[in-house]
Design a protein that fits this description.
single chain, alpha/beta, about 220 residues, TIM Barrel, about 15% strand, 8-stranded parallel barrel, binds erythose-4-phosphate
Amino acid sequence: MKFFVDTAEISEIASLADSGLVDGVTTNPSLIAKSGRNFIEVVREIADLIHGPVSAEVVALDKDGMLREAEVLRKIARNVCIKLPLTLEGLKACKALSDEGVMTNVTLCFSANQALLAAKAGASFISPFIGRLDDISQDGMQLIEDIRHIYDNYEFKTEILAASVRHPVHVLQAAKIGADVATMPPSVIRALAMHPLTDKGLETFAADWLKSGQTII
Ligand code: E4P
């Protein structure tokens, strides 16, 4: 499973990049606004730090407007992935871009039928939003399972990018189902490494080692 980090905060991305655990980055207009930085500059800096796909989202609502914006975003770096909304206009833009070999991420997916359309439009990634479905009492993880089933039935190459991930259990469940990628906030990536028994075990080992009076170096 690939891990993408869902943020536009350069310092967070840089510190996680050192761990070797980050395969890509996703941004959206809200994350860019939260960063308070210039969109193009932030995407350029992220694309310098991370060699994998860096999703940059269009804001136009019509196909031609999306394609014009995609033209600008594509020029930022070779690893920029054009993020498009799951609307009919977004799907048309996705088809046009994928026909040209441009990497695309179709976002704001909330149903398996939407995901089916994105695959038919040649999307590189489909982003089903788990957390936002859970928020309205629908089962976000069931959506991941349904998409996996449909994509496997037809051998679609579109990668399932589990998005709107809120906590480590989302990552575990998405991995068990076979989502290709999970994009998550930096705090969730860090939380995956945590276990109280690891901390307790380390404390005991350190205390016992001290008693032994030995050193390794
Ligand atoms: C993914 O591409 C989105 O940026 C993100 O996962 C949305 O997450 P949220 O629902 O927590 O805002």
